[in-house]
Amino acid sequence: MSGGANIVEQYAGADVPARIELLIKYYPNFICLVEGYEQSLSFIIKEEKAYARKSAMGDIGVRVQTSGTGDPTAKAAIENVMIMEAIQKGNLESVTSELDEQVVMKYQREVVTIQNMREDYQILRNQFFYLEPADVDSFEKYLQCGRHTEKLAYELDIKPEALKMQMCRIKKVIFEQTSSILIRKYQHL
Length: 189
Description:
It is a single chain. This protein is mostly helical. 71% of the residues lie in helices and 0% in strands. It has eight helices and no strands.
């Protein structure tokens, strides 16, 4: 990824054409990247919450044994699940009440971007229905192989130049179809 920005930051700062380019560039791993970022964000929120709790109790770094009647493992597991569910539902209110409002707003923007990334990926995938089945197959292979045409051309038994032209034609259709929908989606932002 370029410029040190993570995929979510890149996506949030991109216009529609740049978003489509990101979707295509990272197509084979896009959903894994999104899920990984969700997981990382849940860890960050969990640590922020722990820090806020300790600060609120006046933690000076000395651990004191409590009564031992609670189940910290179960509490941690429940909190982890609740945070991930909140991220996936797009509403962090229930799990960030003790955090600073500025921090919560930043995380909420990230969650909205993640949701948009998932939706936009599905919109891109839906545009494959405009293609012939053979074109879908070859275009997905093209995206999966990192857009290297020589190996794929050999596999499909066509000349690399012909494959490049075919992929450009297919990409143009996908790009235009996706772009028209995303422009409508983001027109009021």
